[in-house]
């Protein structure tokens, strides 16, 4: 059974307001003994109803009572001390009218309290969902920080190397830096001063192996860094500006930075 859905069905509120059926009451009494969350929900609802009903349970205004009983008294012919005669049917009619006024006030109050309770309950659920979402986001951030720390430790440990790629002629004063771990398996682009790629364009990293370019990956959001697999036997690395999604071969006149390994 989905206990969360059962609690949200409104059966607890119906039970406390006295409008639940016999079978519903029996089922709730059974479930509250089995599931602690049902019992807790009942207590929470009882406390809330007590808290909001006590200050709101003010008597019917005196003027309303006076008007009701003045009408009855007038119909009975009792005004100014004069006794009158009235049939039981007419007296019954006005007594019922007075009762209906009081009953209607009670029903309206119950409805207002019930709706207020439901609204507050929904607000609590929204806050719980937001809290859960923040917890998930926090866990993701913590996982990323741990991953960042591991990557940087590998890239800066003893035996790691640093590859500085300077701007090629005619491309300004840009510079990008690659860190290679001591096992030669991973590259981190940790410093990148390249300008933002224009719409429809994307930077691409290339390894130069025996004088031939080898695709090493696309540069996306390199904050705090971009990670690439190291290319075996690479003598140099370069970055070019290519159409979004990258190219099979580099566009040489769009090369921005270039650097030799162990330079």
UniProtKB/TrEMBL annotation:
GO molecular function terms noted in the UniProt entry: sigma factor antagonist activity
Residues annotated as domain Anti-sigma K factor RskA C-terminal: 103-251
Keyword Isomerase belongs to the record: no
Alphabetical GO biological process terms: regulation of translation
Xref: Pfam families: RskA_C
Keyword tags: Membrane, Transmembrane, Transmembrane helix
GO cellular component: plasma membrane
Entry protein name: Anti-sigma-K factor rskA
Membrane-spanning residues: 94-113
